[in-house]
Amino acid sequence: MLLTKRHQETHRAFCLEYDKVARSIDRRLIGSSPSREAFGRWMKGHLKTKPQADHCRVLERMFPGHTVAELLAPYDPGGNGSGVAPTPSTPREAATNRREVFHLGATTMALGLTDSLWRGPDLLEQAIDATSAGEERIVFLEAEADRLGQRIEKVMPVTLLPETLLHLTSIRELLGRRQPIEAQRRLARVAARLSLVVGEILFNLYHFPLARRWYATAGRAADEAGDRYLSDLALASTTLIPIYSGEPRGALALVTPRLEQATGATPALAWMWGFAALAHASLGDRTAFERAINRSRNTLDRCSSEMVQPGILSFQPERQAFYEARGWADLGNADGAASATVRALAVYDPTISSDPALVRFAHATALAKAGEVEEACRLATFALRDPNTLPITSVVVRAYEFDALLGDLGSTTADWREALADIRPPDPSTLTDLGRGRA
Question: Is-above-0.85 flag for pTM?
Answer without folding.
Answer: no
